[in-house]
Specification:
The complex is a heterodimer.
Chain A lengths: L9 H17 L11 H15 L3 H10 L12 H14 L4 H40 L4 H17 L2 H8 L2 H32 L7 E4 L2 E4 H8 L3 H14 L6 H17 L5
Chain B lengths: L4 H19 L8 H12 L2 H14 L14 H15 L3 H39 L2 H9 L2 H29 L2 H13 L1 H11 L6 H12 L5 H32 L16
Helix pairs in contact in B: 1-2, 1-7, 2-3, 2-4, 3-4, 3-5, 3-9, 4-5, 4-7, 5-6, 5-7, 5-8
Classes of the chains: A mainly alpha, B mainly alpha.
């Protein structure tokens, strides 16, 4: 472990930013079932390859190498490109196997962390705040979310350079921290989901039981047991069904759509 | 009342840009709420756009395209739903009743776009073999064409045909269906919430789910307040774990691991 801090010159910074820009615009544009983000990775690293490999055959080999199956989270995947660029710059074409190992080894874990934080937790928190306000005609929540998304865009910018400078030690050093951060984010997300059930699910029971002089309002009885009892039961039902084989989110949406229309028509829900 | 030609064109461009934004900048394109807001601005009725987008947002909170899965495209649904809701003056439940089927049908076109891109993937392969570097770049970027058209064309067709079709639907939509759809609008968020609970390690964090629920259902704390409580708990969790990690490191370097390990078990207590 050498602590010689890699001081990078202005030209290199420019090149790193170029790769980053190309990752931002290209990473998912070529997405396809066969190799997913393969061509996106190639697009980002292509200028670097043309600089490094002057021999046309080497260049072809490395272009083909970087056009193989790849899939990760686009918010943090550029860290891998940064590390890759540092290795290839150092070792050239002899690093081919090492680079393939790096890519396939990191894409899965990065996808896991990135999808959880950027694909699930943040949209859940800001989406529910924004939607909640939007339903009462307040635009503030939506604008707050837009501002967060713009902020995230700036956050994505320095990551490729970080990967280049820190190299592989990044994974070990920040691994624990990243894990804790992900868990904290999940904790926050779960709290918000708990609050979503009573606030956004609207499932009242207008049914009134009449027998002689006695009238029983179903909803007020239910409320005495627990507020939002019906939404909780519905969530539990769908949660349970989603655990079954061959049940997809699309099927569940259709199921709930039909169920609501039927129950609504019989005035059981309203 | 109907949709003006310039509105159809601008909404079509919005649909075509939206999917590119999803794949690159991720500012609005992934989120029905923000797409609904923009559609509302174009249609001159921000309130309706927010209401349609917000309702759809709550249905897809947990739904993501991880690993390239196709999910209901409620962003396109938000555009079409908002446009017709404003044009017809029929309100939210009508818009949702339209947006949900549109979102479900759009899944097929998402699959088609991802499939079509395989063609460009193979063109990239042959350009690599030729050593044609600009050709490689170009063919990767061509991927944006199927993506963009997969959203723009259906939106254009629906909005153009819609003006005449909408009159027929409006006349003949039965009462039970409209009231059933408004019930569905309230119940459908159940699916998104259940998917979130499936995706997140809910069992491990179930205590926070209960805290969020109680704050919202019994104490009626607004969503932003609940997110702040969640943030406070997340910070506490992070700090606790940071301390534990440091202790672990300290004991590891002292190389006597006697009796300290039982700290690990009660790290969640509070």
């Amino acid at each position: 472990m050498t602590t010689t801090n890699t001081k990078i010159d202005k030209q290199k910074v420019k090149e790193l930013h170029q790769a980053n820009r190309r990752w931002l615009w290209g990473s998912q544009i070529g997405w396809n079932y066969e190799r997913m983000m393969a061509s996106g990775y190639l697009y980002a690293i292509l200028p670097e390859l043309t600089r490094l490999y002057k021999d046309p055959d080497d260049l072809k080999t490395m272009m083909a190498t970087h056009n193989q199956f790849f899939n990760t989270n686009p918010f943090i995947g550029q860290l891998i490109i940064g590390m890759d660029m540092a290795i290839e710059e150092d070792k050239g074409i002899s690093s081919k196997e090492a680079v393939i190992g790096l890519k396939t080894g990191l894409m899965g874990p990065f996808a896991g962390v990135g999808d959880t934080i950027f694909g699930v937790i943040l949209p859940t928190i800001f989406g529910s705040i924004g939607a909640y306000m939007a339903l009462s005609g307040n635009v503030f929540g939506a604008l707050l979310w837009l501002a967060v998304n713009i902020g995230l865009l700036f956050m994505r910018y320095p990551l490729l350079k970080l990967g280049y400078v820190q190299g592989a030690k990044l994974v070990g050093e920040f691994g624990d921290k990243l894990n804790m951060l992900t868990n904290s984010a999940i904790l926050l997300g779960v709290t918000v989901v708990g609050a979503l059930i009573p606030t956004v699910v609207k499932a009242n029971v207008p049914f009134v039981y009449r027998s002689g002089k006695v009238t029983l309002k179903m909803q007020s009885m239910l409320n005495q047991i627990m507020p939002s009892l019906v939404p909780v039961l519905l969530v539990a039902l769908v949660y349970w069904l989603l655990g079954k084989k061959n049940v997809t989110s699309t099927k569940m949406i259709i199921f709930v759509l039909v169920l609501s229309i039927v129950l609504g028509a019989f005035k059981i829900l309203g | 009342m109907h949709i003006a030609i310039w509105q159809i064109l601008v909404l079509t461009v919005l649909a075509g840009w939206m999917i590119i934004d999803q794949l690159t900048l991720v500012l609005i394109g992934n989120y029905p709420l923000l797409v609904g807001l923009v559609a509302g601005i174009i249609m001159g009725d921000i309130k309706t756009g927010l209401a349609v987008g917000g309702t759809l947002q709550l249905m897809v909170l947990g739904v993501g395209t991880y690993g390239g899965a196709s999910v209901p495209d409620f962003m396109t649904g938000a555009i079409v739903g908002t446009a017709f809701a404003v044009a017809s003056g029929k309100g939210l439940s009508f818009a949702i009743g339209l947006a949900v089927p549109v979102g479900l049908l759009m899944v097929q076109l998402d699959v088609l776009a991802r499939f079509t891109n395989t063609y460009f993937q193979h063109r990239v392969d042959s350009k690599i073999a030729e050593g044609d570097v600009p050709g490689v770049s170009r063919n990767i970027l061509y991927g944006s064409i199927p993506w963009s058209l997969s959203r723009a064309i259906p939106v254009f067709i629906m909005l153009t045909l819609g003006n005449s079709v909408i009159q027929i639907i409006l006349k003949d939509m039965p009462k039970w269906l409209t009231s059933g759809l408004s019930v569905a609008g309230g119940v459908l968020p159940v699916v998104g919430i259940a998917i979130l609970l499936r995706y997140l390690p809910t069992k491990q964090y179930v205590n926070y789910l209960i805290i969020g629920f109680v704050l919202a259902a019994y104490i009626k704390v607004p969503m932003l307040g609940i997110a702040l409580v969640g943030l406070a708990m997340a910070i506490a969790y992070y700090k606790n774990n940071e301390k534990l990690n440091e202790q672990k490191l300290a004991t590891a370097t002292n190389s006597n691991s006697d009796g300290v390990s039982d700290d690990d078990d009660d790290e969640y207590e509070d």
